[in-house]
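Q: I have 249 residues here and want to know how they pack in 3D. Can you give me a structure?
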Amino acid sequence: MYIEDDGIKLHIELAKPESGKDKYPLVIIIHGITGNMNERHLTALSEMFVENGYAALRVDMYGHGESGGAFRDHTYFKWMTNAMTVIDYARSLDFVSDIYLCGHSQGGVTVMLAAALKYENIKGLIALSPSVMRPEQARCGLLFGNKFDPRNIPEEFPLWADKVLGGNYVRVSRTIHVENYIDSYDKPVLIVVGTEDNPELVASCACAADRYSNCRYVEIKGDTHCYDNHLDQMVGTVREWMIGGAGRT
């Protein structure tokens, strides 16, 4: 199904538990850059949430999956408004008791930003391999390994698999100071990262966890950015955090 955000159709998929209750919590799940809602690690999380009494709402963000917009034109600002629109949609569902955010990579950063922006609506936050370092890299003239003059931003940045980002992606990224959003959110947070991920990403995740006032930080030994080696450990870590107290309603 689709919902609309300022004229852009966002593709969403809602899975509900057979709980027998009138109300139960919902987790919004957001993918990373070049990703989509049907990636293995995200569908595994969705299934786990539903099995444990949570609704799971996966979304394809602007320029990704089956949602509208061109990949080249997406920015953090657009994803932030997408996230807030999806949160408002979740709030309109009569069975929803509480809302949690879960995001991977760029989606992990997006949920960190959205949790602060919609503080009163978000009970907890899960950031998986969040690319926390990317805005600071953009300020320093680096994007996905590509160096550039931050005072003369190119109009296009080639990525991988024939993907191209527009210069506005960098311009917006340079304005994002993730630490300000971290400081604005004091509810439960879980950050998970694989130790075989990009070393700068791992280091930035550890710093973000230290900065949060109420955060559990878990490293999955020998795992990758998308949990290719130990998906069960990542899912189990999220389940333990949710069921063990942070997600209890």
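Q: Anything worth noting?
A: The domain at 2-246 is CATH 3.40.50.1820 (Rossmann fold). The mean pLDDT is 95.
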